[in-house]
Amino acid sequence: MKLISAFGAADMLELDRQTVRRALRHVAPDGYEKKQPRWRMKTIIEAVDRHLGRRDAGASGLAQSALDTLYEQFDNGCKALHGVPDLDARRREARRLMAVMVELDTAMRADARARREDELRAALRCDEHFRLAMRNFERPCAWTQEQCWALLAEEEQ
Predict the structure, then answer these.
(1) CA distances from 59 to 45, 53, 66, 115, 154 (A)
(2) φ and ψ at 155, to 5 degrees?
(3) Lower Cβ count inside 10 Å, N or C end of the chain?
């Protein structure tokens, strides 16, 4: 775990040193180096966000619960998909779930931006989640992977 000084973090975040120092004033250090307080970058970013009023705990909690609701809706829909006896009905439900999946992907990317996650890492994580989620439709709908992606592209137009 890399620990960083307040001044080092200020340089990395391109913020005024005193702003970071004030944000950390009442935050316990995560460790010490040569008797000097040091923090993890996550701790520093959260403290600065609180200090500058960037994050409202209530709004963050609401965004997370909306994301959780979308995850649950998609997961439950995929589980139920296997129980639908009619192939045409399964395919209609799969198309509805694809729309939920697109909404979930958008919410995941927005959440990553709000949490200041590295853009490349967030994109790779979200892309992989999306790719794996698409595999849920192949077997129950008797579609190939290419057909799933073609249907998704068709829905977006």
Answers:
(1) 17, 12, 11, 13, 34
(2) -65, -35
(3) C
Burial class (CB in 10 A: 0-12, 13-18, 19+), 24: buried
User: Which residues contact residue 111 at a Cβ distance below 8 angstroms, ignoring those fewer than 6 apart?
Assistant: 63, 64, 67
**Cβ contacts of 82 within 8 Å, gap of 6 or more:** 140
What pTM was estimated for this model as a whole? 0.60
Distance in angstroms (rounded) separating the CA atoms of residues 45 and 54: 10
pLDDT digits (tens, 9 = 90+) for 113-140: 887 788 898 899 999 999 999 999 999 9
pLDDT tens-digit series, residues 2-44: 899 999 999 888 889 999 999 999 899 999 999 999 999 989 9
Contact present, 23 and 47 (Cβ < 8 Å): yes
* CA torsion angle 75 81 82 86 (round to 10): 180
Per DSSP (E only), the strands in 15-113 are 31-33, 36-38
